## 1
Amino acid sequence: MQKRAGAGELDVPPDDLPDGLVIADDHGRVTCFNSEAARLTGTDPAQALGGPLETALPLEDPDGRPWWRLTDPYHGLATRWGQPERNLLLPGGREVLVAARYVRVRPAGPVRQVVITLRSTEARQRMERSNAELIATVAHELRSPLTSVKGFTATMLDKWERFTDEQKRLMLQTVDADADRVTRLITELLDVSRIDSGRLEIRREPVRLDEAVRRQVKTLVNGGADAERFDLRLADGLPLLWADPDKIDQVLGNLLENAVRHGAGTVTIEVEPVPHSGDRQEGTAVTVSDQGAGIPEDAMHRVFTRFWRGSPRGGTGLGLYIVKGIIEAHGGTVTVGRCSGGGARFRFILPAGIPAFLVS
């Protein structure tokens, strides 16, 4: 542990912290310089400890101005509690996220310690790239249906009398389908936002998974899928689940639609109870498999990430990310693998948990 006596005890050893930590005493001398701070700055802790804070962390703002002279923690405003996190530069132009906390003897009193946290900008850059990709994906997915809607409505408004009723109906049906596509995209984006922020709302009520599966298969068949492609293997005596029926329908719809669209051959849906195993709660498992080309081994770990697409044939690449978020919000698990014949195999398990007052 890179820490001098007098720095105060920490509940967690400084070297075990995920962020860089630098602490200076009331004279501006470094008393703590952990291993992550050393990694981020390239400074040897042995050289930093006991030396001036400005020397150990020669930080500059993006305009090249020395940060410590600008903030002046020891002689600045007595009401200042610290500095919010911001991008600063180390020698050589390397960016680092820096935040500071001023520990005072008493409110508005002299500074007893300056505590600085350092973080790499890589996580923020990854988030910015992800957000940029999300914006590009949304723009691309919205352009096609909106162009179609605009084209058909403009044509009908301009040449209404020239079209037969059947032609008008066909164009309006296309507009309606494209409006549904836009609505679905907006719903996906809202779900992603809620999953990322931990605000996905689950409205639980008793659910029978076998009935939900039959309902989703019927929807696909009514939409044009061949009924002969589906092989339902639904066990008897399945336990009721305490789940959100709309969210479960969303999960099943996504997995079955993917199997029909991107897979091949028979789509097998197995629903079976999961018995107690040690401390594991009883629940129900659903497996959806197809006879297509399957998912390459090197892509398995990316299947449930944002923007992963199994094929270049459209889609936002958000569906399986949302599936994972919904299942985990229910306390369940979802996995992906390959069938013995090579096709894709998705399996999720939801725990049973009907309140006693609903069972009695």
## 2
Amino acid sequence: MAYIGGAGTLFGPLIGAGLLVGGSEVLRIYFPGKSLFVYGVLIILVVLFAPDGLSTAVRRARRA
């Protein structure tokens, strides 16, 4: 959860927890039977494209 949201911030782990818990529920509704596969692919994409976490990536995008 801290890795997804961003471990270097106060709200990063909270955001990561909300995204992981809420995201898994949404995926279970829209992709029944394939939700774990989609969940795994999304986590891999975050690790590849936002290695410092989503909150850090959003902060960098705001500055640009």
## 3
Amino acid sequence: MPDISVSEAHLERLEEIREELDAVYVGEYGTVRPADALQYLLDTYTPPDAGGGADAEPDRDADARADTDPSTPGGENGGDGDTPEDTLQQAMSLLDAHGDRWRESGGDEPYEVDLPDGSTTGVRTKDDVKRLLFKHWR
């Protein structure tokens, strides 16, 4: 695979994303590499025409990026968006905030999570519950 060049600002933002993914998805026994963070961004990208274009409701992640980017109005100088600490706090409180969307079950997989399409999926750990809540309901 060919190498790409990124600016120092982009590299810093990629590191912030890597740290957030590490805290939310991996936990204390693993790590997210910069290449993993880049792959996550590529995997979760939604083309503008698929996401509703310019008339679509802005996503909370884009708002958070704007508040930390000095080139945008309010960025780093009084922006009122999510900081990485806010994002971490949201991730930590997912179980409480979405208590109506997950529950304990009696099967092989001790927890169930309701998905946006109306289906339910079983998972083995509370970290798996958090991962699905973060992915689908954040």
